[in-house]
Design brief:
The complex is a heterodimer of chains A (298) and B (790). Chain A is of the alpha+beta class and 298 residues long. Helices cover 27% and strands 23% of the residues of chain A. In chain A, the strands form four sheets. A five-stranded antiparallel β-sheet of chain A has the order 4-5-10-6-7. Chain A has a four-stranded antiparallel β-sheet with strand order 11-12-13-14, sandwiched between helices. Chain A has a three-stranded parallel β-sheet with strand order 1-3-2, covered by helices on one side. The mean pLDDT of chain A is 96. By secondary structure, chain B is of the alpha+beta class. Chain B folds into three domains: 176 residues, Alpha-Beta Complex (Aldehyde Oxidoreductase, domain 3); 257 residues, Aldehyde oxidase/xanthine dehydrogenase, molybdopterin binding domain (Aldehyde Oxidoreductase, domain 4), CATH 3.30.365.10; 138 residues, Aldehyde Oxidoreductase, domain 4. Chain B is 24% helix and 24% strand. Chain B is built from 20 helices and 30 strands. Chain B starts with 29 loop residues before the first helix and ends with a helix. Classes of the chains: A alpha+beta (298), B alpha+beta (790). The interface between A and B is large, with 35 and 41 residues.
């Protein structure tokens, strides 16, 4: 049963990353950070996950909403609004693929609220996971409902124990661009390559850690992002593909096909698609993913 | 993309007609709706109000072993927790209880009601209610459930009686219609097409969820209910009184000025029927608002299966048709008995069948009880019929438009039910063909994009079940008027349309004509907002009431002007002898002091063949089951991507056979019928097959197309063929006085605009890629599967 009213919780406006992570430490897995809120509000209303006891507002931390160039690298503050990212002059001139990606995300209203960090860390949109009545594996239950249920939008590769697909579009493009995420916690910070960030059941963040900066090491000489949506005006990806060529070579990444971003050289990704393991209803996603990949490479 | 719309005008519109049949964007509610200042029930509250919530079932079919409400009742701030034991056993529409009695029949069926001081407490209380189920097998198989040996029986004893095959335990209705001899007809056919079509569940996705506020008026002790309704007198008021176990004199029902989306959802007393018991038990105002999930899980269009066999001669003449309908009606009956009967009207309205056989079955299944949704089955029936017609045309090598055109009933032709049909369908089809450029070859596609187009024609029958509607109009001196009638504005802009009708008749500005809110204390019965009736049923009454009031006003003014009343005229609140406007007297002179107002009454007459519509009798020379059929021809051009299964709508043409009263509002409905193309493209309620629960209940997941997903209003081509008016009732001497409705603008329009939206997509995709689809919607997944790419 999805419920509309939001259960009470404590709310803190963090002024610094340090304050935010120590508050999150205090509450452990009963605390959650909030930035744009477009994803968290969905959880608070649908209640498919327990309502946190405390919500720590990150928007009040100054300085994390900037987009800047540093020695050829692009640095994006995790609190940058999606709209601001797409409209940044550096992004438009040197990393147009990022602007192209952002414009495929959600709707203008939601892009005005949602942040880059939030887009990267959002929950999956599996309709079993998103309903309180289905106690699925991802929530700690015994089973993934997709293989025996309606799995038309489910994963076609790297499923393991969960058949939800990664919903973030930026994750796909950032993977192709070889981004590094700065993860900060109470004990300091670490840099995590984005391809190591996602795992089958989510990401490697501890409950008291947040992403603060995203660094793209260099502007690609060529890059494209393609996303297939059933409803063009507003939808998550059935499959998406980003391909970027930099001094280190060409990297392809796929979204919407697995719980994580699938990446490698275009040949590797293509070969992986050939070995896909679709569920009963979603073999068509292989064809769409191949088409997106082909178009992104064109 | 396509030509911009032309200024539509009625043929032979009387000179001087200023507001009716004119494109005028004025709407008394526009500013409120656009700025958000309009108050819907959802926005309202009352002092001392409690918040109601429903505990709902988490399983699709079960015996309720126990419900423990003690912990919920003990919570501070909880005012009442009610189960079936606390409420009299009154069944809405024959079988549906307010809360489940002993058994649950579908996922998310209400089981208990809670009222609390805050929404948060109410919600926390729901968690404290413990329900123990003994789960029963879930019956979802559409045909098996309608059979004599279904996998599971829902209601014992059976509360609804089917007209035929009552030995089938889940059947709530069956209809048999026989015209001619189908076997002989098929023997005469040169070509025959047969198919099985499935149409998935689909829901209204109203902007506002179902919501009601109920309270007891301390001044008179009456139970008051406020809920958005499409049918205040025919459903909400009597059903609320029955559920409350109170005489109607002890109940007052109201509806706010504007309704936050309906499309059939507001035809049923979903929220007030539950809230009122919380009020009766606590004595306090209660607001009960459904969640989005509840709104979608408790109301949706049923699933359908159709079998259609149709034959024709080489020259295209239809010889026979056999249509069989299965409706997976859900856990309770609601309007299911009527919907399987009325689906036959798609054939009686449109097609010239010398031989025809119709069988229909509605059966209980363990899913959401059916709710009528825009066209009451006809969009779904068209999905099968319009495709079968195209397939037959292909088989005999005939142009699809010509094939449909030659088999359409023309005006004043007798149909398979012995009705004499008034129809502008052929003319509408011709106009649609012109607008889409049917006579020219379609442009080629590019790369993986294949181009297809289709032209379909369908009808929606109008059977308002309203015999003698009546409106009052109260003229005031300003000059202006207040209009009293059951005018339900669902977003159809009927408030503006009715004001235009009053303004035209009284020759005053529409801004001065106020449509009063729905309230059973003062509203008269001018029909309901189902079956597209309001513009001509309420409209006719209001026109006549205005004429009556003017007659009385002229009688008062005649002596002072030294003329006979019939020689007088009025304009902008002045009365004068026709042709002599210089010697005018104001209305105000006759509406002061002892006579502050002048009242007019308008009664219309829409005689029905209620006896025959229920029995489907076909004796008699001719008769009329429906007041009228209204027709639409819809044409689209699409591009289909063979690599991704993507479908782009390139052109959208929609033509009705009506003379619109409010041209602006009518054309908006015709244009935005494009949203219903989603029913062909990808919009559906996706059901989990283990428990019938819908998995995609949000606006995001449910995927209704927005204006950005279709050509959009400014790129749609809409037009109107001449309207031949309503059908002459049996036994009433010609001409029947109300045949032309309001100013000759004979028909309602709403449902016909969307009737072809599902079939036209299927036919256009088939034209593009040469593959037929028997299941709607046709998402990219199915296209790729059909192309062997998945």
């Amino acid at each position: 049963m999805s419920l509309r009213f939001i259960t009470r919780f404590a709310h803190y406006d963090a002024k610094t990353v340090q304050e935010a992570t120590s508050l999150l430490s205090k509450y452990g897995d009963k605390g959650k950070p909030i930035a744009g809120g477009t994803a968290l509000m969905d959880i608070l209303k649908k209640k498919y996950l327990p309502t946190p006891e405390a919500i720590v507002n990150l928007k009040t931390i100054p300085g994390l909403d900037q987009v800047m160039e540093e020695g050829g690298a692009l640095k994006i503050g995790a609190l940058t609004k999606l709209t601001d990212l797409a409209e940044s002059s550096i992004v438009k001139s040197k990393f147009p693929v990022i602007a192209e990606t952002v414009k495929m995300i959600s709707t203008p209203q939601l892009r005005n609220m949602g942040t880059v960090g939030g887009n990267l860390c959002q929950q999956v949109r599996c309709w079993y996971y998103n309903k309180p009545d289905f106690y699925c594996y991802r929530k700690g239950g015994p089973v993934c409902y997709q293989p025996g249920g309606d799995n038309r939008y489910g994963a076609i590769m790297e499923q393991k124990v969960c058949n939800a697909v990664i919903p973030s579009d930026l994750a796909v493009t950032f993977t192709a661009l070889g981004a590094t995420l700065k993860v900060e916690g109470p004990d300091g910070s670490r840099d995590v390559p984005i391809k190591d960030f996602y795992v089958t059941l989510g990401n490697i963040l501890k409950p008291n850690e947040i992403v603060t900066w995203i660094t793209i090491p260099e502007a690609p000489s060529k890059a494209r992002f393609r996303k297939f949506k059933v409803r063009k005006s507003w939808d998550f990806a059935v499959a998406s593909a980003a391909v970027a060529t930099t001094s280190k070579g060409t990297v392809a990444a796929l979204g919407g096909v697995a719980p994580v971003v699938v990446s490698g050289t275009p040949d590797e990704v293509s070969a992986a698609l050939d070995k896909a393991t679709p569920l009963s209803m979603n073999k068509y996603k292989i064809q769409i993913a191949k088409t997106m990949l082909k178009e992104a490479m064109a | 993309m396509v030509e911009t719309k032309k200024e539509y005008t009625w043929e032979n519109k009387p000179a001087g007609q200023k507001y009716v049949g004119v494109r005028n964007s004025w709407n008394p509610d526009a500013v409120g709706v656009v700025t958000g200042s309009m108050r819907y029930v959802h926005d309202m509250s009352m002092p001392n109000m409690l918040y109601g919530r429903m505990k709902t079932s988490t399983v699709a079919h079960a015996r309720i072993k126990s419900i423990d409400t003690s912990a919920a009742k003990a919570m501070p701030g909880v005012a009442a927790v009610l189960t079936a034991d606390d409420i009299p056993d009154v069944r809405m529409f024959g079988d549906e209880p307010v809360v489940a009695r002993g058994k649950v029949m579908y996922y998310m069926e209400p089981i208990a009601l809670v009222a609390a001081e805050t929404p948060e407490i109410a919600e926390a209380a729901l968690e404290k209610i413990k329900v123990e189920y003994e789960e029963l097998p879930v019956g979802l198989d559409i045909e098996a459930m309608a059979s004599a040996n279904p996998p599971v029986v829902l209601h014992t004893p059976k509360l609804l009686k089917s007209r035929f095959y009552d030995e089938r335990p889940n059947l709530i209705n069956a209809t048999i219609g026989i015209h001619g001899d189908v076997e002989k007809g098929f023997a005469e056919a040169d070509a025959i097409v047969e198919g099985k079509w499935d149409v998935k569940r689909f829901t209204h996705m109203t902007a506002g969820p179902n919501c009601a506020i109920t309270w007891i008026d301390p001044n008179d002790g009456r139970l008051n209910c406020m809920e958005e309704t499409q049918s205040i007198f025919q459903v909400h008021y009597p059903v609320a009184a029955a559920v409350a176990n109170l005489p109607m004199s002890k109940v007052r029902f109201r509806c706010p000025r504007k309704i936050a989306g309906a499309y059939g959802n507001r035809s049923y007393v979903h929220a007030a029927s539950r809230a009122l018991w919380l009020t009766l038990k606590t004595g306090r105002p209660v607001k009960l608002m459904f969640t989005r999930d509840e709104t979608t899980q408790i109301t949706s269009r049923p699933r359908w299966r159709f079998y259609f066999k149709v034959g024709c001669k080489k020259d295209g003449t239809l010889t026979a048709g056999k249509f069989t309908v299965y409706n997976a009606n859900g856990g309770y009956g609601r309007f299911g008995a009527g919907i399987v009967r009325n689906a036959i009207f798609q054939f009686s309205g449109n097609w010239r069948f010398p031989n025809f056989r119709y069988d229909s079955f509605a059966a209980y299944t363990n899913e959401t009880p059916m709710q009528n949704l825009h066209t009451f089955a006809h969009q779904e029936v068209c999905f099968a019929v319009n495709q079968a017609m195209d397939m037959l045309a292909e088989k005999i090598g005939m142009d699809k438009y010509k094939f449909k055109r030659m088999n359409l009933l023309v005006n004043d032709e007798v149909n398979i039910l012995n009705e004499i049909v008034r129809s502008g369908a052929a003319e509408a089809l011709d106009l649609a063909a012109q607008h889409i450029g049917w006579d020219k070859p379609k442009a080629p596609g590019t790369g993986p994009w294949k181009r297809g187009r289709a032209i379909d024609v369908g009808n929606v029958y109008i059977n308002p079940l309203v015999e003698k509607p009546l409106a009052y109009v109260r003229l005031n001196a300003n000059p202006g008027c207040d209009i009293f009638g059951s005018v339900h504005d669902l977003g159809t802009q009927i408030n503006a349309t009715v004001a235009f009708i009053a303004a035209e008749t009284l020759k005053i500005p529409p801004e001065n004509c106020v449509v009063t809110d729905l309230d059973t204390d003062h509203t008269t019965f001018t029909g309901s907002a189902y079956a597209n009736q309001q513009a001509f049923v309420a409209g006719t009454c209001v026109m006549k009431a205005c004429q009556d009031a003017l007659r009385k006003l002229f009688e008062k003014a005649a002596p002072e002007l030294g003329a006979n009343p019939e020689d007088l005229d009025t304009k902008d609140g002045m009365i004068f002898v026709k042709g002599k406007p210089e010697n005018a007297l104001p209305w105000a002179k006759f509406m002061l002091g002892t006579t502050p107002f002048i009242w007019g009454m308008g009664e219309a007459w829409f005689p029905l063949d209620a006896e025959n519509i229920n029995t489907m009798k076909t004796e008699g020379k001719w008769r009329r089951l429906n007041l009228l059929y209204m027709f639409a021809a819809t044409a689209v051009e699409v591009l289909v991507n063979e690599e991704t299964g993507d479908v782009k709508i390139e052109k959208f043409v929609n033509v009705s056979d009506t003379r619109p009263i409010n041209v602006w509002a009518c054309d908006q409905q015709m244009e935005m019928a494009q949203n219903y193309l989603g029913a062909g493209l990808y919009t559906e309620m996706i059901q989990d097959q283990s428990n019938g629960a819908y998995l995609n209940t949000t606006h995001l997941e449910n995927k209704w197309p927005s204006a950005l997903d279709v050509p959009g209003p400014s790129n749609a081509v809409v037009d109107h063929a001449p309207s031949p008016g309503m059908m002459q009732p049996y036994g009433i001497p010609e001409p029947w006085p109300d045949v032309w409705g309001v100013y000759g603008g004979g028909k309602g329009i709403s449902e016909a605009t969307i009737v072809n939206c599902q079939s036209v997509i299927a036919n256009a995709i088939a034209d593009a890629i040469g593959v037929r689809f028997y299941e709607a919607p046709i998402e990219p997944r199915k296209i790729l599967q059909a192309l062997g790419k998945a």
